[in-house]
Amino acid sequence: MTPASPRHSSDSASSDPARRSGNAGEASVLRFKGIDAAILALLLGFALLLIVRTGSANGQELWPMVDAIEYAATAVNLDRGLGPVLHFGGYSYPCRYTIGYPLILAAAYPLLGRRPERLCLVTALTALIAIAGLYILTLWAFERPSAILAGLLLATSPHFIGISTCVLSDVPALAVVVLAVLAFLYAEEKESLVASALCGLLTGLAVTIRVTNGAILAGMLAAVLLVRPRRLGFAPVMAFAIGLAAFPGLQAWVNLHYFGSIFSNGYVFWRPEFYSSFFAPFKLSYLFVPWDPVYQHGNLLSYALPMLGIDGILGQLTLSTEARTLAHARYAFYPFPVVVFAGLGVFFAIRRKGNASTMRAMYLGFGFLAPLLLIYLFYLYVDPRFLLPALFIVFAAAGYGLVSANRRLKWGWAGFAVIALDVVLAGAIVVETVSRLATPPPPLRKLVVDVLAIRPRLTNAVVVSNISLQWLELIADGKRTEFVGLNSLIAPEMLADFHLHWLYDKRSAGWSGPIPPTLLPNGKLDVAEARKLAEEDKNGRPVYLLLLARATREYFAEVKPEFAQLDRYFTYEKIALYPEVGLYRLKAR
Predict the structure, then answer these.
(1) Which residues contact 224 (CB under 8 A, 6 or more apart)?
(2) Could you give the CA distance from residue 422 to residue 306 in angstroms, rounded to a whole number?
(3) What gap in Å lies between CA 299 and CA 376, rounded to an integer?
(4) pLDDT digits (tens, 9 = 90+) for 275-303
(5) pLDDT tens digits, one per residue of 382-411
(6) Which of 275, 277, 302, 274 is nearest to 287 (CA)?
(7) For residue 539, with 0-12 CB atoms within 10 Å meaning exposed, 13-18 middle and 19 or more buried, which class applies?
(8) Pairing between strand 482-487 and 462-465?
(9) Alpha carbon 323 to chain centroid, angstroms
(10) CA nearest neighbour of 184 among 239, 143, 147
(11) How far apart are CA 126 and CA 168, in angstroms?
């Protein structure tokens, strides 16, 4: 057996009075050397290669709907001075999401040339920050070999890499959480008020990226109370509280301004049928029966399978956003051996009563993951990516467990089991990585390119389209173009206008707010809107019909009768046909 390093040896544990009494030892000192910079550069370069090979088609198209469109639109409208809102069809509406991630996107937006299709680069950058932060955290709490393995496991995680190319908040939330944990460890071990305030600020940002990230407070409290020496002084707590209040305070003001209550939110506005009260989106039945048939399993299996690393075996990889980000993956986050090694890492750390840094990281990480999982087990929507911000501790513990188990390798069934797990883990990572590198990235869809090519023609025109109005406002630049919805139907595989559909649902339920003009609301011709468009054409203003070619036969079969009604008002002139869209001129009869 290879001797344990002095830092974690059982001899030192038995001779340390603090450890004999059940307390953690002294905190470790972070020693980031030149070799760590070189290793980290290699890890980040490798991760960047995998991100590039994944392709940017999803990010440029602002997929998945409706999430990416809302994040991008809120960021763009913040930059334009409209506030954290959606804006389409001449009206502004609140966003469903909290402001943390849109604020990050808005800050970077000018640096991206104010091109919405480039916002996915911000997510890719935060992915690299998350890997770097995890490496430093694991180096601090454990040691260099563990840090290398933790960084490698995260860098090769299929779902992590996949959504790093999308305009989604999960990867940025992970990056901010890891930075908050680093600030927490520094604040605890150096008793630094500045670090305490920074930790609070980052934690508050994580909460406003996604409210459920507030579960990290439970982990922080556990790390403070369960690891000695306990440092819960008045000044550090106040510094943390002041920093913590900044971003949630801003979110409270936004909620009060747009909804009239600090406790309300955009989900209550857009989906009142599911969010009529605080507990409305939570049900015990979701554990076993999903609320929507699109999900293959209830929440218990939907989260248990990817967390155990066996989701690919039962076909769970077609779930929700994973359908495109994990097109060739065999598991979502990690293969099964990672879970075993993470458990061994926890076991070795607890058995040795490791140093204070190790135990604080452990209590904080798992104290965050457990309540976060508990929340989502009963929640309406289900997607394993919701757990990503707390999974940093699984990767870190797995790196430590892998190193510790192999250092203590002995002949016998336990030794053979460790070797078998090593082989399975290495094989799974190699196969997954080679598959991603060998498979050409998905072709860049022509939709954005096509719409950008059409955009100059749309200046000062009226455009009727079956594409999401909010998406068109972003990509086709709605400043000088008036967009009119074709209909409020939702069709698969389209950039359908969910927002328009939800607004008409709200109107049918008695809501009296404004709705953007729509030619075929609920599939029925709006005669007044048709006459208005005909008058626009007669007055010399071009009126175009922009159709997404990706629509299904069923969709066209459903709207064909309504197009027949349009013949009473317009003739059609083909202007341009592109791979993804077709542009037609509507001329009044």
Answers:
(1) 188, 230, 231, 232
(2) 19
(3) 8
(4) 989 999 999 999 999 888 777 789 999 89
(5) 989 999 999 999 999 999 999 999 998 888
(6) 302
(7) exposed
(8) parallel
(9) 15
(10) 239
(11) 11
